[in-house]
Amino acid sequence: MVRPLLREQKEVEVNIDVDGEDDITLKKGNMTLIRLLILLNKAGEAGMTTMDLYDNGIKSRGHGYNILQKAQNDGLVRYIIQERHNGQFPFIVRYITNSGKNFLKAFMGF
User: pTM surpassing 0.85?
Assistant: First the structure.
């Protein structure tokens, strides 16, 4: 069996200025970040639990976790741990920040 040659992936970078702060570089293949921000923006003030994000938008827990951590480190997403009253494990609710909204507006062009 002969395997086809893999094409070289070209790296395309897009620098987006957010609130006059450091540019955030978006590389080809990082559209999951944009999908994540769109979902959180649609969720509004209620936010979304991490499990709902995994199930509805990201589809991959390993890659999704890395994207969530990057978004959090860049200040695009924040989270709150909410305790449950019935003794079950607490759950995490994610929210988009103002920087995340500005980033999304700059990327989408409106």
Answer: no
Is 4 within the bounds of a domain? no
User: For 51-75, what is each residue's pLDDT tens digit?
Assistant: 888 887 777 777 778 888 889 998 9
What is the amino acid identity at position 56?
N
**pLDDT tens profile 92-101:** 999 999 999 9
DSSP string covering 36-75, please? Answer: HHHHHHHHGGG-EEHHHHIIIII--HHHHHHHHHHHHHTT
Whichever domain contains 86, its CATH number is 1.10.10.10
Whether 3 is in a domain gets the answer: no
Is 102 contained in some domain? yes
Domain count within the chain: 1
Other CB atoms within a 10 A radius of the CB of residue 40 amount to: 24
| Cα distance between residue 33 and residue 54, in whole Å | 12
